[in-house]
Structure formats: C-alpha cells, structure tokens
Amino acid sequence: MVIFALIYLVLGFFMDQMAIIALTVPVTLPVVEALGFDPIWFGVIVILLAEIGLITPPLGLNAFVVSRAAGIRVETVFMGSVPFIIAMLIVTTLIFVFPDLSLFLTTSVN
After folding, report:
1. What are the distances in angstroms from CA 94 to CA 74, 89, 99?
2. What's the distance, CA 85 to chain centroid?
3. Confidence class of residue 30 from pLDDT cuts 50, 70 and 90?
4. What's the maximum distance between 2 C-alpha atoms anywhere in the chain?
5. Per-residue three-class SS string for 44-89
6. Would you state the torsion angle of the CA atoms of residues 28, 85, 92, 6, taken in this order, to the nearest 10 degrees?
7. How many Å apart are CA 69 and CA 44, to the nearest integer?
8. How many Å apart are CA 87 and CA 76, to the nearest integer?
9. Per-residue pLDDT at 109 exceeds 80
10. DSSP 3-state assignment of 3?
11. How far is CA 24 from the centre of its chain?
12. Contact indicator for 96, 37 with CB cutoff of 8 Å
C-alpha cells in the first residue's frame, strides 16, 4: 500500500486529480481488495494524495489558480501551501496507521 501511495503522490505532482482517478483506480482497486483492504479507506487515501498533488509543484493547479486570482507570484503561493501539505501528509499517515479514522462514520451508521 505504501508503494501505491507513493505512486499516487508522484502522479499528483504532474496530473489532474480526475485524470489520476479515472486512469488508475480501475486497475488498483481490484488489487487493493484482493489484499484485504477496505475500498472506502482506499478511496479516502487516493483523494488525500491527489489533493496533495494539486497544491505541490511543479504542476500544482490549485496554486496557479490562487496565484492568478490573488495577483501574487506563484512561488509565494507554493511557499504558503507548505504548512497545508505537511498537515495533509500527517492526516494521510494517521489514516494509514489507524484506518478506522476514515471508516468511523460508515461503521457508526449501521
């Protein structure tokens, strides 16, 4: 799963989130299910990693949008997004270590 996470993180640096999901999930989801992981947990991880990619260089699309809308340099936006990247990586690590965090609401409804 760590290898999948690294692949999604690197893909997020260069591709749009919807393209990543559309191209990779049909291939990776059966493998994840065969390994015994919950598909909802996997979906949460994929979304988190793809979102991290949207705010990191070299192709952080959200950073370019904010830069244009605010009229500031994109380098400044990338530097300002570093605390958010760190926070999202911490959350992703916590969900990896404690998968029940992402499954809490789905199990409490039943």
Report:
1. 30, 9, 8
2. 10
3. very high
4. 49
5. HHHHHHHHHHHCCCCCCHHHHHHHHHHCCCHHHHHHHCHHHHHHHH
6. 40
7. 29
8. 18
9. no
10. helix
11. 13
12. no
Place of tokens 């947990």: 41
Q: What is the rounded average pLDDT of the residues 1-17? A: 86
* Tokens at 105, concatenated: 């609401």
Percent helix / strand / coil, the chain, rounded to 5: 80, 0, 20
**Which residue in 80, 82, 102, 81 sits closest to 91, CA to CA?**
102
CB atoms closer than 10 angstroms to residue 87: 11
Q: Is the pLDDT of residue 88 over 90?
A: yes
- Is the full-model pTM beyond 0.70? yes
